[in-house]
Amino acid sequence: LKGASNTSLPIPFVKNGCLPIIGHLIPFLKDKSKFIFECQRSYGSRFFIELFSQRMIFLLDPNDWSPVIRNPNLSLPVKDFGTKTFGISRGFLDDEPIMNEIHRYFKLYLQSTESLDFLTARFSKCVRDVMIQDRARIGSHVWHPYSLLELSHRMIFEASGRTLFGDMNPLLLEKEFLLFDKKFHYFAAFLPDFIYSLFLRREMNARSSMTTYFNAHPHSNNESELVHHRAKRILEAESRQPNDLGASHTSIFWASVGNTIPATFWSLFYILRDPHALQKINEEICTHLPPFSFSDPNDKSFEFWTSGNIAKCVYLESAINEVLRIKGTPMVSRKCYQDTQISLADGTIIPVRENDMISLFPEVVHSDPNYFPEPEIYKFDRFLGKTTDAIKGLLTFGSGKTICPGRHFAKNEIKICTALILQNIDYEFLETNMNINCVKNRIGFGIAPPDCDVPIRYRYKE
Ligand code: HEM
Q: How far apart are CA 216 and CA 249, in angstroms?
């Protein structure tokens, strides 16, 4: 075993499932959750594995997380994501001044109260527009057979694309997005290049089509400030290669919908089946968020759908946080960019080499009864009065300097879709007692979609 001779770490090397050259790649890609929990049972909360020649050190005890998050030599492998996952050139990603500026834009244009309110109201309007079109297509008060994931996709995909990118038609990219998204876990696993060109050619082509589209349309009318300033800065950069703008837009496009669609699915899946949650959430939506008119083109009710008013829906907030806990299974990965050491909670010091990866796996905490009593049960009011940022161990959006900058917008998107569906749509589940799990190989990248869709029928209320 290659890794065994490498052991200079004071923590065990996992022997199960390790093959020559590729190391633990197969069990890791197949079902991360199962593999990590099995390793935890055999080796405790600290162990390491190998993926090709890279060491991946797992620290599953949340008491060990803060020295990792705070260590300046460890950070989210943004450059690997950029190149391997989205095809951005390495030279461009190495341009520190540009990258720092773009990072600043994330804070400024996704998180400031003014920008967040603008994006939130615009997103509400865009979902309303999608609903108006949909209602015109299927008619009002006519039952339409569909499925819950499709409905979540339909409500989020176009509205989110238009909110960020302005007057473009996101549906032109839908087929390519779905192809790429289905195999996203391979792109985010940073595999050797030949694997992509040999086995994932269709998905590579789909990604290229999105890049080409965005290269040809760097700006659109009514684009968000984030997209506007980012595109402008990228176009000015001397380090930029021809595809970098399109690839960077593709990365934001994916980031903005790749997790929000499954999160909305799970939110509806749990809330719609819980009469008590439905009653409480319906009451507060009715009080704080004005319904819109399907017939009045000048209706401006979406302007009241601000972050402030949405935040008044405290049961909805708690219900969404509970979805983020029960289905939020990211792997918070930090790459080591310079040899360093980490001093863990019990005083153990771990030497970490350049190129090692440290992984925290919040699902271990999200499903720990010491943190969340009866963790397997969805309790819509579990987080009443608490915010996700304040809850120790709930790391659905990552942590530290690179914590997801879109998290407040993402939560508003999920809430808006859920609220608008409750306000405007009657629905019925066509099958009860379905046993639905997450797509296993998507675990580790945020919120995994369901492994099968849930048949429903819906109709617009009169
Ligand atoms: C439910 C939805 C979402 C989930 C679960 C999610 C989760 C995450 C996670 C886990 C990270 C890595 C953080 C880290 O390891 O420190 C991340 C990064 C990021 N997310 Fe999100 N995200 C969501 C929605 C969004 C949205 C709507 C946007 C943009 C509009 C967005 C933009 C980004 C960006 C730009 C980064 C990279 C940050 C950096 O380079 O520092 N995300 N997200």
A: 11
List of residues 6+ apart from 418 with CB closer than 8 A:
264, 267, 268, 271, 281, 316, 319, 320
Give the integer Cα–Cα distance in Å for 204 and 131: 32
Reference 301, options 64, 110, 435, 128; nearest CA is 128
Per-residue pLDDT reduced to its tens digit, 411-458? 999 999 999 999 999 999 998 878 899 999 899 889 999 999 999 999
**261 Cβ closer than 6 Å to some ligand 1 atom:** no
**Residue 45 neighbours by CB under 8 Å, 6+ apart:** 59, 60, 61, 64, 364
User: Is residue 327 classed exposed, middle or buried when 0-12, 13-18 and 19+ CB atoms within 10 A define those classes?
Assistant: buried
Greatest extent of the chain over all pairs of C-alpha atoms, in Å: 71
Residue 175 has pLDDT above 60, yes or no: yes
Amino acid 2: pLDDT: 44
49 Cα: distance to centroid of ligand 1 (angstroms):
26
For tokens 């009241």, what's the residue? Answer: 304
- What domains are there in the chain, each with its CATH number? 61-460 (1.10.630.10)
Nearest CA residue ID for atom 41, ligand 1: 402
Residue nearest to atom 6 of ligand 1 (CA): 397
Name the strand (E) or helix (H) holding 305.
none
Count helices and strands in the chain by DSSP H and E runs: 21, 10
pLDDT of amino acid 462? 78
Residue of 134, 181, 204 lying closest to 447 (CA atoms): 181
Is 85 close to ligand 1, i.e. is its CB under 6 Å away? no
Consecutive H or E run containing 380: none
How many angstroms separate the CA atoms of 441 and 461, rounded? 38
